[in-house]
């Protein structure tokens, strides 16, 4: 007897659940042929006994579909000795003995077992789409084993045929699962390969343009992605996984080696820049108390050029070094500024004198009496020199105004000299034409300067224009005198 034949549903009558009949009325066991399973081979009860009428205190057995029971009963037989047989395509097979009871009662236990087997097959069919390949093989093997020679009465051949049909579905399901496994492996391989390729791309980046902190964080993120894919994704074959891991590990090693080399070289450059800048600071501090304003200013400009060419030290060191260098410059330039301010205060009085002289000089233009004008201008020039320096900011303006008067006198003198020239009229007209062109050009320059708002350019353009107008006036006057 197989293990399945020895199994009995919990609802089957047993000596423990069924009240015992009076000893005098118990059926006497009969000799059992060798081909008939003895009662002792059946599980609970070890010897089949007629079921007693159900007590009101017993739990009711699960109700069976009468149609299913009637259909299964067609495949069972009970002989006069209580031997129960099932009819199969191969013939009749004795499945047990249940003497002393009616044929219906004798068959009921074995019909129930058949219906249990039928339910197991149906349950397997229902669960089949969601089972793994291993569970499919295990379940199918269990059904095959249960249906070899079960101690059950029913359409066992039909049930076996049903299992054979399910065998085809199992094969299809296993093919589907295999395809899904291959697809999952391909996806897992693709995902791991992309992780490795991204890591290799980072490692291959030019160190000069590498953003080390960001790319280091990216590599750590890729390592986390690798671990997550390893935990949650489909398994790939070990040789392929090992080869990918070696590539990933090599990319990380290349990146780490490059980062160490980059920062070692950066530290060396920072150290060199720091040493060079400390020497520049020593030179700047040595000059900070100099009162040789012009040459020292040039020396500081040279130091600034060397500072820029020295490169950067580390951020912390560079800020501190710049503060020291700047402090040395500030000592010198603040002292120079104080000196200039003192001189400017002193030169303010000189400026007032020269502004008064400019008013006198500008009244000499246009020149009417050349010799008298020249004598007055020489007197003004002498007093101009005696007046001394003016504030630096006013120097160009006042000097320019005086130069314009001087130029007008020279032009008048030259015009006077040219009066004796036979070609004077022609020259005067040519000079007038040139001056008109120059004045037109200077007026354009003045307009452009006014639009730019640059006071220095405006002043220069105005001075040049005033001078040319004065010359033109002298030329035209000379031409009139000649005519």
What Rg, in angstroms, do the CA atoms define? 60 Å
Q: What's the N-to-C terminus distance?
A: 156 Å
Strand order of the largest sheet: 1-2-3
Overall pLDDT: 80
| Number of separate structural domains | 4
**Total number of β-strand segments?**
3
Extract low-pLDDT stretches.
1-60
Q: Into which percentage range does the β-strand content fall?
A: under 5%
**Major sheet details:** 3 strands, antiparallel
Structural class: mainly alpha
**Spatial shape:** rod-shaped
H/I helix tally:
12
Spell out the helices and strands N to C: HEEEHHHHHHHHHHH
Helix content: 55-70%
Protein described:
By secondary structure, the chain is mainly α. The chain has helices at 66-73, 103-127, 133-146, 156-203, 212-232, 238-287, 293-309, 315-362, 370-387, 392-417, 424-452, 455-482; strands spanning 76-78, 83-88, 91-97. The chain has 4 domains: 23-52 and 61-155, no CATH class; 179-266; 269-340; 364-482, no CATH class. The chain is built from 12 helices and 3 strands; from the N terminus they run H-E-E-E-H-H-H-H-H-H-H-H-H-H-H. It has a 3-stranded antiparallel beta sheet, with helices on one face. Helix 3 (133-146) runs antiparallel to helix 4, helix 4 packs antiparallel against helix 5 and helix 11 runs antiparallel to helix 12 (455-482). The chain is rod-shaped and about 175 Å long.
